[in-house]
Amino acid sequence: MALTFDTKFEPAHGTPVPVADGVVRITAPNSGPLTFHGTNSYIVGTETLCVIDPGPEIESHYQALIAAIAGRPVSHIAVSHTHRDHSPLSRRLASDTGAMVVAEGPHRAARPLYLGEINPLEEASDMEFMPDLSLEDGAVMDGDGWRLTTIHTPGHTANHAAFALEDGVVFSADHVMAWATTIVAPPDGAMSDFMASLDRMLERDDRLYLPGHGGPVYKPRAFLRGLKTHRRMRETAILERVRQGDRTVADIVAVIYRDTDKRLHGAAALSVLAHLEDLVERGAVTTDGPPAIDAIYLPA
């Protein structure tokens, strides 16, 4: 199935935009190659509220959230994962509103670091984050007129979670986005986890995804199938490059991503590494040591 990305998105930075019944989106002004037009924060409810992914420490974004809350009680602040464009503002917002901060858990990597390995995303991770309550898969949050169910969706990070309203609307955060594929970057994330999470979401029958960046996904199941196909095609391309003699991540990136903005080649290298880790685990590729960013890869 072909995968078509939707990059038509007006962020309306700082302005509450209604996106579903009882839900408004406020986009933070932290545009960039990996954040698109900025991080989407969502306010759920009309009386007692839940704020999903309050976002980065940006004063104007905090003031926009406070203005949209408009003095109403906030019972929950739900954090999808602990990258610094999603979670840091939860601490200040919780202090000022008295809300409970909930998430799958604190930040952790999908696997331990190999000897001598450096986590390239460590600076992007909110290591200080600690939820008031860790949410098990299936955990429910109730408010006035809304109910959110937690769906563990590891892959982008080990602690990634989505949150589903009962009317088929899912806050998919960085697991599924309409504008681009999700970055899966070891050791924070793992491709095997990501693919399993796609399958998990395919078992559901949701009607709308509201992602962490960019606009909505209007046909989630078709889009999920497209994402799976896209990832399998990328895996096939990587495996073919190894069979053709490319031995390093850098060699593979230079060929497969030759038409991609070079500012994204670092992220592309981590995505290739995630696929190679999965291929090594499944026995399709071998390495001269751990499947690290500087390893030598050979066909099995």
Count of distinct strands? 14
Structural class: alpha/beta
Oligomer: single chain
Query: Strand order of the main beta sheet, please?
Result: 1-2-3-4-5-6-7
Question: TL;DR of this structure?
Answer:
Helix content is 27%, strand content 20%. It has helices at 59-69, 89-97, 191-202, 220-243, 249-256, 265-281; strands spanning 17-20, 23-27, 40-44, 49-52, 74-79, 100-103, 133-134, 140-143, 146-152, 161-165, 169-173, 208-211, 285-287, 297-299.
Task: Give a description of the structure.
The chain has helices spanning 59-69, 89-97, 191-202, 220-243, 249-256, 265-281, and strands spanning 17-20, 23-27, 40-44, 49-52, 74-79, 100-103, 133-134, 140-143, 146-152, 161-165, 169-173, 208-211, 285-287, 297-299. With 300 residues, the chain is an alpha/beta fold. A hairpin with a 4-residue loop joins strand 3 and strand 4 (49-52). The protein has 6 helices and 14 strands. Helix 4 (220-243) packs across helix 6 (265-281). The mean pLDDT is 95. It is elongated, with a radius of gyration of 19 Å. The strands form 3 sheets. It has a 7-stranded mixed sheet with strand order 1-2-3-4-5-6-7, covered by helices on one side. 27% of the residues lie in helices and 20% in strands.
